[in-house]
Design goal:
single chain, 342 residues, Isopropylmalate Dehydrogenase, 12-stranded mixed beta sheet, 15% strand, disordered C terminus
Length: 342
């Protein structure tokens, strides 16, 4: 039996529902894998009536989602009423977004879903509700630990056919990057990346390009010693472990076409060093993939776009790519429930 993908609602006031409707309508044309939307059915019915009245809905449990998918968008009830209007988050936004994530993890852990795809959340809305985690990635890691009892170190990778990048530090102010960056953090991140590229992406010996922190990778210490004292020792440790790693490499010459052909993934030292190049090359179809989890999780590589929510103008390309990649990766991943029984 083909298990469906669990698709979370994301921020209800954002474009998550809109791009979900658009992706479902293209299911046959693109051969999309079956998926179900975790949401409040009454809320989804209102949004469908507003922008996609030709989209039939079926309120189901996950076990019935694959069968319903051909003729209706399957919706699994998260039991959290939603009152938010397009572009206007309210007090129901954060509880609904988090409930959908929790249910998705529970479903994949129970073997009811093949993988998780998450629609975009608004971190500021979550923070105002008291959400303690830095973001989606960290919260999924916490839920995975709770579900399995095994320590999890989630790693964010942005993937596209043109480029794959991993920020070693993620949601940090720039002034906090250097105190947080360490040789062990670079090594641990690279190990997880290399393992998941082998096991889930099927790359026999992944090639890792490790960017330097400073301009020109520090110019041999003239522009900061972090590349000599942190990044270079990390690369040497990775090489000693048999991982194909190179660096520290100057980030300003790491992302042109010829350079990209020499590696499978680039590890950057901070958020924008990684995300600017991939959003320049693949803004409309890059996918956020969380490595290091005991299940597959992907997400569109964009935000909630409050300004166009509820208009029907949102581009579903990145969500479609996320659904396709989740299906591909889940074929190689051992189901969580089966792993638990082994």
């Amino acid at each position: 039996m083909t298990l469906p993908l669990a698709l979370t609602l994301g921020e209800p006031a954002g474009i998550g529902p809109d791009i979900t409707f658009a992706a479902w309508r293209r299911r046959a044309e693109l051969g999309l894998p079956p998926f179900y939307l975790l949401a409040d059915p009454a809320f989804i019915a209102r949004r469908v009536e507003r922008i996609a009245p030709d989209t039939p809905l079926a309120v189901v449990e996950p076990a019935a989602a694959a069968a319903a998918f051909a003729t209706a968008l399957p919706v699994v009830d998260i039991a959290v009423p939603i009152s938010a209007e397009p572009g206007r988050p309210d007090q129901s936004s954060a509880p609904a977004a988090l409930a959908a994530i929790r249910r998705a993890v529970a479903d994949v852990h129970a073997g009811a879903a093949a993988a998780i795809v998450t629609n975009p959340v608004a971190k500021n809305v979550l923070y105002r509700s008291g959400f303690p985690e830095p973001g989606h990635t960290e919260y999924l890691g916490k839920l995975a630990e709770e579900a399995t009892g095994v320590a999890v170190r989630p790693v964010m990778m942005l993937w596209s056919p043109e480029l794959a990048v991993v920020p070693v530090t993620i949601h940090l102010a720039l002034k906090d990057v250097i105190p947080r960056l360490s040789e062990s953090l670079v090594v641990e991140t690279a190990r997880i990346v290399a393992r998941d590229l082998r096991e889930r992406f099927g790359i026999g010996r992944p090639r890792l390009a490790i960017a330097g922190l400073n301009p020109h990778a520090g110019e041999d210490g003239a522009l900061g010693d972090e590349d000599l004292t942190v990044v270079r020792p990390a690369v040497e440790r990775l090489k000693a472990e048999g991982i194909d790693a190179r660096g520290p490499l100057p980030a300003d010459s790491l992302f042109h076409q010829a350079a990209r052909a020499s590696y499978d993934v680039a590890l950057a030292m901070y958020h924008d060093q990684a995300l600017i190049p991939i959003k320049t090359l693949a803004f409309d179809h890059a996918v956020n993939v969380t490595l290091g989890l005991p299940f597959v999780r992907t997400s569109p590589d964009h935000g909630t776009a409050f300004d166009i929510a509820g208009t029907g103008r949102a581009d579903p390309a990145s969500l479609i790519a996320a659904l396709q990649l989740a299906a591909r990766l889940s074929l190689r991943a051992q189901p969580v429930a089966a792993a638990r029984r082994a």
